[in-house]
Amino acid sequence: MSQNRKKYSDIIKLKAKKFGFQSCGISKAGFLEEDAKPLEDWLQNNFHGEMQYMEKNFDKRLDPTILVEGSRSVISLSYNYYPEEKIDSLGNFKISKYAYGQDYHEIIKEILREMVSELRAEIGDFDCRVFTDSAPILERSWGRKSGIGWVGKNANLITKQQGSFYFLAEIICDLDIEEDSPTSDHCGTCTKCIDACPTDAIVADRIIDGSKCISYATIELKNEIPDSFKNNMEDWMFGCDICQDVCPWNRFSAPTLEEKFRPNQFLKTYTKSDWKEITQELFSEIFRKSPVKRTKFAGLKRNMDFLSQ
């Protein structure tokens, strides 16, 4: 049995590399005891703002064996989205780098499905479900547990060799696989992310008040943006990369090889005045396959109007 555990781990990691994942780590599926109290405190402090969905499925978030019955292992993976081309945002509205290209949910899920299909052909049938930011899973906790990175002071998963500009994904399965160990923390005394956040959303080391975060205000929040954000949003109309842009580990970020994550042509040419003139039809055309469609035309317009006050 132990031979199979090691063999499965080796095969899965080779396959992950073949399918373009940067990192792959494995954990034993079970209750995330060390995350229960912090998650409870975070919710009690209302740091989730109006993200009511965070209050649901508390048990599933902490235990993947409830989410995926019969699961024994969590395979954590990361996929680079760092752009090759930097979009000139000086004096312009800004969009988070993860939204430059097409919607990662569908792209990565399709890659995961193909990867699982090949794994089944190689090692035999097994039960699993694949996820990428699409279910009540504490993705960063599993990434930390599997050793693919550590949770930084900005609460992002950071990897020494690649920084933090990557999507996280999981294959939760019933295979018994040799697990990996967590890596060490390499934030040290650095507080660049905390110091740089214009809305003071990083309220403590590794604790984010989501209701103060620019990404929350521009994407998750459905009502009017509170006045407390006024003059603090630095022209971000969708998402925010500030705490990642200042992180010293992101100097090692290399451009993604996935063409579908490359910048939408409009993002490279549109100016503030162009964005202000955008219509529902243009929005639908520009962001048809983009994560930006999540905020809807009315949401993007609200964000731009707020930034222009």
Folded structure, characterized:
The strands form four sheets. A four-stranded antiparallel beta sheet has the order 1-2-7-4, sandwiched between helices. The longest helix is centred in the middle third of the chain and has 20 residues. It has 309 residues and is of the alpha+beta class. The protein has one domain. Helix content is 36%, strand content 13%. Helix 1 crosses helix 5. This is Epoxyqueuosine reductase.
Structural category: alpha+beta
The first-to-last residue Cα distance is: 65 Å
User: Percent helix among the residues?
Assistant: 25-40%
Low-confidence region ranges: none
Please report which band the strand proportion falls in: under 5%, 5-15%, 15-25%, 25-35%, 35-45% or over 45%: 5-15%
Provide the fold topology.
Elements: H1 2-18, E1 23-28, H2 33-44, H3 58-62, H4 64-67, E2 73-80, E3 94-95, H5 104-123, E4 128-131, H6 139-145, E5 150-151, E6 157-158, E7 166-173, H7 192-196, E8 202-204, E9 207-208, H8 214-220, E10 236-238, H9 242-245, H10 265-269, H11 272-276, H12 280-286, H13 296-307
Helix pairs in contact: 1-5
Tell me briefly what this model is.
Monomer. By secondary structure, this protein is of the alpha+beta class. Helix content is 36%, strand content 13%.
